[in-house]
Amino acid sequence: MPNARQWMLIITGGLLLWYMLSSLAARREPEPSPGHQAFRQRLVAVGDLHGDIRNTRAVLRMAKLIDEHDKWIGGSDILVQTGDNIDRGTYALDIYRLFASLRDQASEAGGQLHTVLGNHEFMNAIGDWRYVSKADIAHWGGQKQRLHDMSLDGWLGQEWLANYTTTARVYLAPFKGAPSLSFTHGSLRPSYPDLLPYPDRINELGAGLLSRALTPPMAPPHPPNPYRGLPEGTTAAEAGVYDGGGPLWWRGLADELDEKTVCEWAKELKEKLGVRRIIGGHTPDFERIVDRCGGDVIIIDTGISYAYGGVLSALEIIYSLRPVDGAGELSTGVHALREGERYIEREEVYAVYQRGKKKITVIEQEMII
Ligand SMILES: *[C@@H]1O[C@H](CO)[C@@H](O)[C@H](O)[C@H]1NC(C)=O
């Protein structure tokens, strides 16, 4: 048995230990809990899908945007698809139908769907059907039906013209001066003459070319018919969109080996367009989403379609604002954000795969909105 003096020591020691531990715990930074965020936005971007409806669904489920019945469960999330839903695989038709249905559902839930046209959408429109499989034409109900659906008289032609763009600028938050990201199928080239005003100029030229191509009578498909080239009346600037150096076909940001050159291009593009990141598809890496220059450039084509057998992937961005003074309420509405106040802005960028998420970059900085 300890005597009175030993008891005193044990009790004092215990108290000291408790005091030290509790003050240590108090000094630790509180975790940023959702309760302290004034604003939170999640964005998911998916690359080339090439006629694979199964993997399209698998990727959207992996990204927690749709459920087992293809219903939108993404709430206020933003989904961006960077083009080339068609060719190679069989089920392009189903992919376009799925996106049309998700566009309505997302907007009802306060979310957004941005769909971008790829070089393969344009190829089909102008009659270059070299990558169209027999199975795709059969699944569509024959060549005549397919041509009709894609024309200005058909649902898909109308959907492309109304709801697809050649490039998309997507804002991460709804306040003036909020950061935005650029999405294009191919690479934007810094010396491409029609970058500005961004994104309107590119989209006006893309829509011009597309509506010429889709105006009946559409070009008879090649093969077996001879390739007609761009539609009659196409302007030089419209032809530039479809050129090897244009936004649908160029691969510079993906293919250039010299990292320093790519970073200079990225810097120039970011300044010119006023966007934070340049994101594209078109050039597959069958293993991973490729980030360059610390995430200034991200290439998200991982050959998702069974026609390629690459890896299922999605780019995920989680953007949040926490008030520096006082706690705001968690809300995705702009009313929680107060102009002139200081916030901690946090942007987390991840590559998502079936085996897990991989961090690309995280930015945290103080800003006044
Ligand atoms: C474009 O999208 C809207 C919203 O989902 C839809 O109501 C509309 O029918 C689409 N337009 C065309 C021409 O398909």
What does this protein look like?
InterPro entries: Calcineurin-like_PHP, Metallo-depent_PP-like. Residues 1-25 form the signal peptide. This protein has 369 residues and is of the alpha/beta class. The protein has a single domain (42-321, 351-368), classed as Purple Acid Phosphatase, chain A, domain 2 (4-Layer Sandwich). The protein has 11 helices and 12 strands. The strands form 2 sheets. Strands 4-3-2-1-10-11-12 form a 7-stranded mixed beta sheet. It has a 5-stranded mixed beta sheet with strand order 5-6-7-9-8. Strand 8 and strand 9 (297-299) form a beta hairpin. It is elongated. The model is unreliable at 25-35 (pLDDT under 50). The protein binds 2-acetamido-2-deoxy-beta-D-glucopyranose. 2-acetamido-2-deoxy-beta-D-glucopyranose binds next to helix 3 and helix 7.
What is this structure's SSE topology?
Blueprint: H1 4-27, E1 39-46, H2 53-62, E2 78-81, H3 92-108, E3 112-116, H4 119-126, H5 134-140, H6 143-150, H7 155-163, E4 164-165, E5 167-171, E6 180-184, H8 200-214, H9 236-241, H10 252-255, H11 259-273, E7 277-280, E8 290-292, E9 297-299, E10 313-323, E11 342-353, E12 356-368
Parallel strand pairs: 1-2, 2-3, 3-4, 6-7, 7-9
Antiparallel strand pairs: 1-10, 5-6, 8-9, 10-11, 11-12
The protein binds 2-acetamido-2-deoxy-beta-D-glucopyranose.
Keywords: Signal
GO molecular function: hydrolase activity
Pfam family, one: Metallophos
